[in-house]
Design brief:
transcription; Arc Repressor Mutant, subunit A; mainly alpha; about 180 residues; Rna Polymerase Sigma Factor, Chain: A; globular
Length: about 180
Amino acid sequence: MLSLTDLELLELIQNPSTKEKGFRLLIETYQRRVYGIVRKMVLIHEDADDITQNTFIKAFRNIHKFQQNSSLFTWLFRIATNESLTFLENKKKRFFFPVEDYQEVLENYLDQSFTLTEDEISLKLQKALLKIPEKQRLVFNLKYYEDLSYEEISKITDTSIGALKASYHHAVKKIESILTNE
């Protein structure tokens, strides 16, 4: 597949005769990366699949509001991030899970979903990530796994760079402490 620029994708989407093709290409271009960050937040494949789909539905409905202040990727990640955080908050409320119980549910899911061939360190890191606040986990995932700059994360999360650096630092320290004490 040819890689299209954001401008080319937007031109296709804004033209009524190529709108559907433009969105299909937008999804093909960004779906894997959006799913990846959502999955790291919610862990469960079916939930990540639903949130990814919701992200693209919201993008479809609101593309006319995209002001091109950032890349399409950043805009989509912001939608996906908000959808993930909202989903996690609603799930806790819906099932009346205290935070610790919900973490235990996700830890059990991790234990069952990791196979013997997967890296033990990766499993321990995922479990440690469950024990830190969601926003710190998000910043950690975007910086560590997605290798995004603080400027990009700032646009996605609408948070100052200084606050992001502090959040990432605290996340790393908490993860180190959790892994050291296990």
